[in-house]
């Protein structure tokens, strides 16, 4: 596995300090550059250089993305379903009922515990760097970086139009508008984990489209323009169409499915190493499929 990024300096970039080249030309963060320089993982023609080094035409610049790192998480054997994977990242299809990262309430049995075991079994010395997250009872695609470079790049590119997260949800009732945008600020109260619609909150934008209507609900497709905690659940509840099974925001009886009927089914993003647009799409899980069959 080649962990190095290689660039050859052209005439237009000659006589530029390597720090400026890395930051302005390659769009690397100051934090990444500093750490890689200290660890001598940035070389010119095979030699480590200081960040005030002036580049010359034809110079070969290499950046080693590998770092031998440890994480204070216990590896646990777990079934990991990878929808996409390469040396820089992995996209996992997370089932409902699994917490993404250890917390005080869930110190073990999380996706991060399983991923560390998965990496160890494959002989990959990397830690879990979450780029996206999902609630415990939301299923679907989660993007995880395998090194500092890919994490920095993916986190930076989340603001681009080419970085898209698509969801499917089954909601209570039928929406009047078959397509639209919910643009309402979301605020976290101090009392509990619930978020509310409040002018003190951050601007939050959710686009939706009705795919299929039933007598007692709709199957809708959603795309996030912002990524606030519980955003989809709060927004849909605020317009009177909570997700079926959502006990926190809809007062729903979750015996109908056992969790909120929300699934992250699509992910599109520029690859950190090649800038190629990676598009991944997965099917609905069985419990949501069964719910739809009952509603039909």
TrEMBL record:
PROSITE patterns: S4 (PS50889). Keywords: Isomerase, RNA-binding. Pfam families: PseudoU_synth_2. It is an enzyme of class 5 (isomerase). GO terms for molecular function: catalytic activity, acting on RNA; pseudouridine synthase activity; RNA binding. CDD domains: PseudoU_synth_RluA_like (cd02869). InterPro entries: PsdUridine_synth_cat_dom_sf, PsdUridine_synth_RluC/D, PsdUridine_synth_RsuA/RluA, RluA_PseudoU_synthase, S4_RNA-bd_sf. It catalyses: a uridine in RNA = a pseudouridine in RNA. Its EC number is 5.4.99.-. GO terms for biological process: enzyme-directed rRNA pseudouridine synthesis. The active site is at residue 135. Residues 88-238 form the Pseudouridine synthase RsuA/RluA-like domain. NCBIfam families: rluA_subfam (TIGR00005). Belongs to the pseudouridine synthase RluA family. Responsible for synthesis of pseudouridine from uracil. This is Pseudouridine synthase. It comes from Clostridium pasteurianum BC1.
């Amino acid at each position: 596995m080649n962990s190095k990024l290689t660039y050859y300096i052209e005439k237009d970039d000659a006589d530029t300090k390597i720090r400026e080249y890395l930051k302005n030309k390659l769009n690397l963060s100051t934090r990444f550059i500093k750490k890689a320089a200290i660890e001598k993982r940035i070389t010119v023609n095979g030699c480590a250089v200081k960040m005030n080094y002036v580049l010359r035409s034809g110079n070969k610049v290499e950046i080693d993305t590998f770092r031998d790192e440890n994480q204070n998480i216990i590896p646990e054997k777990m079934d990991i379903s990878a929808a996409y994977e390469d040396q820089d990242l992995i996209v996992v299809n997370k089932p409902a009922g699994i917490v993404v990262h250890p917390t005080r309430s869930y110190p073990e049995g999380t996706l991060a515990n399983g991923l560390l075991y998965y990496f160890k079994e494959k002989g990959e010395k990397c830690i879990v760097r979450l780029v996206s997250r999902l609630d415990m009872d939301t299923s679907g695609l989660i993007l995880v970086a395998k090194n500092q470079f890919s994490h920095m790049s993916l986190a930076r590119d989340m603001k681009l139009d080419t970085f898209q997260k698509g969801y499917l949800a089954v909601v209570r009732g039928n929406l009047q508008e078959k397509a639209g945008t919910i643009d309402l600020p979301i605020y976290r109260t101090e009392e509990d984990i619930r978020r509310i619609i409040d002018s003190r909150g951050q601007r939050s934008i959710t686009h939706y489209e009705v795919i299929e209507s039933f007598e007692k609900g709709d199957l809708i497709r959603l795309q996030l323009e912002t990524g606030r905690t519980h955003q989809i659940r709060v927004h849909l509840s605020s317009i009177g169409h909570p997700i079926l099974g959502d006990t926190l925001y809809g007062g729903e009886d979750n015996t109908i499915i056992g969790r909120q009927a929300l699934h992250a089914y699509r992910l599109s993003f520029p690859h950190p190493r090649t800038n190629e647009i990676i598009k991944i799409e997965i099917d609905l899980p069985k419990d949501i499929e069964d719910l739809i069959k009952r509603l039909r």
